[in-house]
Amino acid sequence: MNELPNCPQCSSVYTYEDGTQLVCPECGHEWTAGAESGSSEDVKVVKDANGNVLSDGDSVTVIKDLKVKGSSSVLKIGTKVKNIRLVEGDHDIDCKIDGFGAMKLKSEFVRKA
């Protein structure tokens, strides 16, 4: 059986795998396997159109009219997006926009608010 590491936050031995993430059921902490504290892995830095570093929970503003795929509507310039979440992939921002719902955005089309 594979030996999973203890939780880096609360040292719980009851960690489990959820896809590519490791999860601690006691404190709710999630982390990537092999990314324990003290690891020197390359962390992808996500920057907005102006070069400001973005992080989870930031608010951003759309800087260009964007067509919404699968719809005839357009996400207008100046639309404010609150509480973003950074994800891996081509579209590196995951968010919910009032009037549009859940959406993925590219960081090159937003600026930090």
Describe this structure in words.
This protein has 113 residues and is mostly beta strands. The chain folds into 2 domains: 1-39, N-terminal domain of TfIIb; 59-112, SH3 Domains (SH3 type barrels, Roll), CATH 2.30.30. The protein has strands at residues 16-18, 21-23, 30-32, 60-62, 66-67, 74-75, 80-81, 85-86, 93-97, 101-105, 110-112. The strands form 4 sheets. The chain has a 3-stranded antiparallel sheet, with no helix packed on it. A 3-stranded antiparallel sheet has the order 7-4-11, with no helix packed on it. A 3-stranded antiparallel sheet has the order 8-9-10, with no helix packed on it. β1 and β2 form a beta hairpin. Residues 46-113 form the Protein YjdM C-terminal domain. Residues 3-32 form the Protein YjdM N-terminal domain. One of its GO terms (molecular function) is hydrolase activity.
- Do you know the CATH architecture of the largest domain? Roll
Structural class comes to mainly beta
SS field, number of helical segments: 0
Global geometry:
elongated
Rg calculated over all Cα atoms: 17 Å
